[in-house]
Design brief:
Layout: E1 21-26, H1 28-39, E2 43-46, H2 55-66, E3 76-79, E4 84-87, H3 99-116, E5 121-126, E6 130-134, E7 139-141, E8 152-156, H4 159-172, E9 177-182, H5 192-211, E10 216-217, H6 220-228, H7 243-257, H8 260-276, H9 286-306
Helix pairs in contact: 2-4, 4-5, 8-9
């Protein structure tokens, strides 16, 4: 008896190895998979300016990172309730008690793009087609920072506009392999019907780009919505995929983009992570000293595999 429709993932003929540099940007998938890639020894950056959900803001953040585009002065925000300065193009975690300190925080995010350089591969996760325009500046924003609703106009980024933005992203990242995904996280604040419409536009826009041979698609959305398809694979909020679901997507990602040698090295890194996470009852004891020696042996083994 079959109780679910498993999505078969074919291996890509363009595999990712530890010799590649990776940039992940966009919705929560970028952070989830980014953490796992980082733990597995890959040279990566994920969401240097914080989580971002719509295509237009992703493009703008890439411009800030790779074209040193000046900040839009009209998009600085100050909230009197918490006394913090923010900028509407960046995540709320970019905040400070002064504009000067905020600029330093943003500068540190931009430096991550510089340090990484042009990535071998960029994985872009689109979250929503719903966008917010700041009325006072007539600019789309990445984050409303819980400012009053009256400050914004809610809009829908059309299919044509989304395709146009994706083409701009690919043009900006010329020479970088682009892999698009659509986040399985449901934006229920928009409404169920509105969320479905939003995801449909994102999926169609990405596939229009892919059929032109400009980019690739990884089916994270379908893996959760159609393959797992059960609330037991969600967190308690019934919106975000659970840890088990993320691990399932990660396994499928590895199957698609990693060869056997790379996956073997990933397993070694995971083993190292587990060993280093061990907290001893007796740090000076002989057993723990042997454990530390095994960690050093594994580090040397990993270094040898990478050379």
């Amino acid at each position: 008896m079959k109780l679910r429709t498993e999505l078969k993932i074919e291996a890509s003929d363009r595999q990712i190895s530890h010799n590649h540099t990776l940039l992940l940007i966009g919705s929560c998938f970028s952070d989830n998979i980014g953490d796992l890639l980082s733990r597995s020894g890959f040279k990566i950056e994920h969401n240097p300016f914080g989580t971002v959900y719509n295509a237009a803001s992703i493009y703008k953040q890439l411009c800030y990172g790779y074209k040193a585009q000046p900040l839009d002065e009209q998009l600085f925000a100050y909230n009197e309730n918490d006394g913090l300065h923010r900028h509407y193009d960046f995540h709320s975690s970019f905040n400070a008690t002064s504009k000067a300190d905020l600029l330093q925080n943003i500068g540190r995010g931009a430096q991550k793009f510089t340090d990484l350089g042009q990535p071998s591969c960029c994985i872009i996760t689109l979250g929503t087609s719903w966008v917010y325009q700041l009325k006072s500046a007539v600019f789309l924003v990445a984050n409303c920072h819980k400012m009053p609703d009256t400050y914004f106009d809610k809009q829908f980024l059309s299919l044509e506009d989304t395709v146009d933005v994706l083409q701009k992203i690919i043009g900006l990242l010329q020479g970088t392999r682009c892999i698009f995904t659509v986040s399985p996280v449901r934006h229920l604040k928009d409404g169920l019907v509105e969320n479905a419409r939003s995801k449909a536009v994102l999926l169609e826009a990405v596939h229009r780009i892919c059929v032109q041979g400009l980019a690739e698609y990884f089916p994270a959305y379908e893996l959760v919505i159609d393959d797992l398809r059960d609330y037991r694979f969600y967190e308690d909020d019934l919106l975000h995929p659970s840890r088990l679901a993320v691990e399932y997507i990660w396994d499928k990602f590895c199957d698609r983009y990693m060869g056997e040698e790379t996956k073997a090295l990933v397993r070694k890194y995971n083993k190292l992570h587990q060993m280093m996470s061990h907290r001893p009852f007796h740090p000076d004891g002989e057993a723990y000293q042997k454990h530390l020696a095994k960690i050093e042996d594994l580090k040397r083994e990993i270094e040898s595999s990478r050379s």
